[in-house]
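Reopening closed ticket. The problem is back. First fold of the pair:
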Amino acid sequence: MKRPFSATVWREGQWYIAQCLDVDVASQGDTEEEALANLKEALELHFEPPTPTRPAEIRTIEVEVGAA
């Protein structure tokens, strides 16, 4: 599924910075085109479902929540 995102690009020193305006993701590159391509890759990775490396463990912790 493809979804459009808004982005802005600006120059900061020697780098072009591309920032998504819809999701808190940004990237950089030597050119505007490279910064946007890197932002596209970063967004694809951001929305990629996580792949666990081991089964999740359910743990119990105790927390002090009131005055003793």
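Second fold of the pair, where the issue appears:
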Amino acid sequence: MSRPCPCQSKKTFDRCCEPFILGKALPETCEKLMRSRFSAYALAKVDYLLATTAKVKRDEEKRDELLDYCLSVKCVNLKVLEAKGGPGDEEGVVRFHASLSVNGKRHLHSERSTFAREEGRWVYVDGETN
């Protein structure tokens, strides 16, 4: 049996985010993409994070810095507050709170993420944080 999914869906990793991260399936909603990206941060799956970032933003990302960030942060909990963007949509929004631990100190990351379709699949465009 697989471990619990880092995205807090109450499903096992192999039945939730793992197929997306391994490239065996595509998230059909923005929420599923956002959850799989949270799991990718938790597991330092940098290639997936880059692949699911909009092309216009992807070039701005530095792989080594992203990996360092993933390794320095523990993803503790995720709470989705609002999710819009399903199989028939071209744009979407997900608002969430992520509980993170950095050097043993808890931080609450609040974000309103925007998503769009590129070549038929959802990608992360950007986010507004508080």
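Update: turned out to be a display glitch only; the data is intact. The CA atoms of residues 25 and 91 lie 20 Å apart. The two ends are 37 Å apart (CA to CA). Please close again.
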